[in-house]
Amino acid sequence: MLDRSIGEFSRFIVIALGTTILGFSTDNWWLALCAGLAVYLGWLLWQQNQFDRWLANGRRGPAPTSFGVWGDISDDFYRLQRRHRKEKQKLHSMLRRVQDSTSALREGIVALEDEGNLAWWNPAAGQMLRLQADDAGQPLVNFVRDPRFVEHMHNRMFGRGRASLEPITLPAPGDDSRILTMEVTRFGQDEALVIVRDVTRLHNLEQMRRDFVANVSHELRTPLTVIAGYLETLQMSGQAPRNWERPLTQMSEQTVRMTGLVNDLLLLARLETSERDTGRDRVSVRQLMEQVAGEARSLSGGRHEITVECIEDCTITGTAGELHSAFANLAFNAVKYSPDGGPIELRWRLDAAGGHFSVKDCGIGIDPVHIPRLTERFYRVDAGRSRESGGTGLGLAIVKHVLLRHGANLTVSSVPGRGSTFTLNFPTHKLTLASSA
């Protein structure tokens, strides 16, 4: 920059000296100097005008050919223009590759901007959500109007309410026979990416499994009732041979166990198929804990010391039977897997996050590797011990589904050989203090 200034100043000095010398030869040096400077100034203004016109036309084509300082400026702009074009071409090429790669995906991808307006989508998303080219710029909720997705969208975009991290499963817009999952991920300033997947096949397979389990479980109830009735009659009559006593006792025990398994399967099927968050019972936590503790003491038969701690009573809004099932399953598991004489604590506490019902035992404990899978159907940490205790392997699966229906969750902390603590965490909007109720 300094070299250009020196060069232009030197050029100005040469023109001034040349016109002055020419003026001395004609005895009008000042007139010649003014004329020379005027010509030089007009030449600079003309170059500036050419450059301004090139800028006004959008810098199309190369910069105008100039000399002096404007020539240097034109050269710099031309070099910047070429560099900008190369970077622009590189970005366009990269964008085309990204669009081509996403177009090949079976999952739908929707880019949102300006607080949820459509910016771009790949063909799979356009086909699943029935989007047209002229839909760009409109809010996505205009096309996916399911209230659950609208709430999920607002929670994820604007942080309203309880923002769930789980994808939303809902029918496809305009086609109830197709089932989609939609997951919203926010990034940048008021921008988001929506991943859309077609899970119709998985949904149908899951529905078939539920129907099969429910139907088979229902059909098994009648023969089990008949078998149990005849076994009870034989045992009560006293007419059976003595060598039949042990087989009849074992058959009765297994019939009772199978009946419990069928009942648990039917309960699970009902929990999975019925709508969530429909219960409106006001369940007193203190009364529920006392009832569950009494049942656990009956199951224990005096072998364990079961205590109840409920400092601040409140009510839970939900389904009374389901809540009883969840509370009782944890208490019964503590009785089954705790050694004789061991203490079992049932505790309820409140804090800013909500209400927490915990069952603490001093049993065999659980290795941390098993904890993530405890709520799976028929998952057993120790299969032999579970069968001896009479468990069906469905208790914690039932607890999980009950909690899902009540907007709650389960946490487990355990140390092998030192016992376990299972905690049901209920959100504050499900709770009402007993005094205010």
TrEMBL record:
Alphabetical list of Gene3D superfamilies matching this protein: 1.10.287.130, Histidine kinase-like ATPase, C-terminal domain, PAS domain
Positions of the Histidine kinase domain: 215-430
Pfam family, one: HATPase_c
InterPro entries linked: BphY/WalK/GraS-like, HATPase_C_sf, HATPase_dom, His_kinase_dom, HisK_dim/P_dom, HisK_dim/P_sf, PAS, PAS-like_dom_sf
GO molecular function: kinase activity
Reactions catalysed: ATP + protein L-histidine = ADP + protein N-phospho-L-histidine
Enzyme Commission code: 2.7.13.3
SMART domains documented for this protein: HATPase_c, HisKA
Keyword Nucleotide-binding: yes
NCBIfam families documented for this protein: phoR_proteo (TIGR02966)
The name this protein goes by in its record: Phosphate regulon sensor protein PhoR
Gene of this entry: phoR
